[in-house]
């Protein structure tokens, strides 16, 4: 039974090792370009969300101000 478990572990390790060998890692220029792209898109999306929050916050504040106390 122990030999079967060890054999299974070796099989999984061999499979993972062969799959990792197939990975094509990006070069430095491509990595920098993709990192900058992700940062810019994240910044734009964050600004969009912040703008929506500001607009809806103002609308909500205006509506709450209309409620008599």
Notes on the structure:
There is one protein chain. The chain is 86% helix and 0% strand. By secondary structure, the protein is mostly helical. The radius of gyration is 27 Å and the shape is elongated.
Derived from helix and strand composition plus strand pairing, the structural class reads mainly alpha
Mean pLDDT: 93
Q: In angstroms, what separates the terminal alpha carbons?
A: 77 Å
* Element order: H for helix, E for strand: HH
From the spread of the alpha carbons, the general shape counts as: elongated
Main sheet attributes: strand count, strand direction, barrel closure: none
Strand composition percent: under 5%
The overall strand count is: 0
Radius of gyration: 27 Å
Features:
69 residues, mainly alpha, single chain, elongated
Give the helices and strands, then pairings.
Blueprint: H1 2-21, H2 28-66
Summed up, what is this model?
With 69 residues, the protein is an all-alpha fold. The longest helix is centred in the last third of the chain and has 39 residues, at 28-66. It has a domain at 25-69.
């Amino acid at each position: 039974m122990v030999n079967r478990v060890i054999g299974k572990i070796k099989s999984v390790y061999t499979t993972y090792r062969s799959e990792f060998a197939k990975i094509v890692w990006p070069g430095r220029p491509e990595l920098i370009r993709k990192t900058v792209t992700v940062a810019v898109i994240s910044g734009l999306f964050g600004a969009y969300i912040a703008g929506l929050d500001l607009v809806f916050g103002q609308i909500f504040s205006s509506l709450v101000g209309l409620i008599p106390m």
